[in-house]
Design a protein that fits this description.
By secondary structure, the protein is an alpha/beta fold. It contains nine helices and six strands; from the N terminus they run E-H-H-H-H-H-E-H-E-H-E-H-E-E-H. Helix 1 packs antiparallel against helix 4, helix 2 packs across helix 3 and helix 3 runs antiparallel to helix 4.
C-alpha cells in the first residue's frame, strides 16, 4: 500500500525542542528582572513576527532573543549580554544529536522494504549538519529541507517525486506541520508526540479521518504499518 514513508527529523527522530527549552531558561535568567511570563510572551510574539524574515530554526531563535532583550531593556542591553545570547546559539548548534528511543532500529527495518524520505524544515546548513551527524543519512532515498510545511509544499514534493498521495505515509511530532497538511492532501499521517511541543506547532488533530493515526513511540510504527496494509 505505501510506496514512500517519510519522517520529520527534529523531535521525531532526535531530540530538539529540549535544547530550545534549556536555552530559553538561560535567557529568562538573564532577564529575570522582567519576570518569566513577560519574557516568554515577548519572545514568542517576536519569534512569530520574525518567521517570515528569518524562518524556523536556531538562528532565527537567537535573533529573536536579541530583539526581545533590546525591547525589554529599552535598548539598554549590554554588549556582554548580546554576546551571551550569541554563545547560547553556538552551544545549540554544536549540541550532540541524541536519537530518540527505537529510532535507528525502526529506520533500518523499514528501509529494507520501503523508500524512506526525510522532510524537515528550518535553516538549511543546520539541518544538513544534523542529518549528517545523526548517522541516519544512508537510509533515506530523498531529503527535503523546506522553509515551511504546508499542504501546498507537500503536494509539490509528491508531484516532483511522482508519488500518489494514497501511497504516502508521513510520521512526525507536530500536528500543525506533519499531520494536518498531510491528511488535507489525502495522504496518511502518524502522530508521535514529543515530550513538549512549541505552541506554534500545535493544532487540532483530524480525529475523523481514517488517514490519521497516533502512537506513543516510534517502536510501534512497524506493526501499525503492517495493520494498515
Amino acid at each position: 500500500m505505501f510506496e514512500v514513508i517519510a519522517f520529520d527529523a527534529d523531535d521525531t527522530l532526535w531530540h530538539n525542542e529540549s535544547i530550545f527549552t534549556m536555552t530559553q531558561i538561560k535567557f529568562r535568567e538573564m532577564l529575570s528582572s522582567h519576570g518569566k511570563e513577560v519574557v516568554d510572551q515577548t519572545l514568542f510574539s517576536t519569534q512569530i513576527k520574525n518567521l517570515q524574515h528569518f524562518g524556523y530554526g536556531i538562528k532565527g531563535f537567537i535573533l529573536s532573543m536579541i530583539e526581545t532583550s533590546i525591547e525589554l531593556t529599552d535598548g539598554e542591553v549590554s554588549g556582554n549580554e548580546i554576546q551571551r545570547i550569541l554563545n547560547f546559539g553556538r552551544e545549540m548548534l554544536e549540541a550532540p544529536i541524541e536519537l530518540l528511543p527505537h529510532t535507528r532500529e525502526v529506520i533500518e527495518e523499514l528501509s529494507q522494504k520501503y523508500s524512506l524520505f526525510l522532510i524537515t524544515k528550518g535553516d538549511l546548513i543546520d539541518q544538513e549538519t544534523k542529518i549528517a551527524r545523526s548517522g541516519l543519512a544512508e537510509f533515506f532515498d530523498a531529503v527535503e529541507i523546506v522553509s515551511d510545511k504546508t499542504a501546498e509544499v507537500y503536494s509539490k514534493i509528491l508531484y516532483r517525486h511522482k508519488i500518489e498521495a494514497s501511497n504516502f505515509l508521513m510520521i512526525g511530532n507536530s500536528m500543525r506541520s506533519d499531520i494536518v497538511p498531510i491528511v488535507k492532501i489525502g495522504a496518511h499521517a502518524v502522530h508521535i508526540p514529543y515530550l513538549s511541543t512549541w505552541e506554534h506547532e500545535q493544532d487540532h488533530p483530524p480525529m475523523d479521518s481514517k488517514h490519521f493515526s497516533k502512537l506513543e513511540h516510534l517502536g510501534l510504527l512497524p506493526e501499525l504499518i503492517k495493520e494498515k496494509e
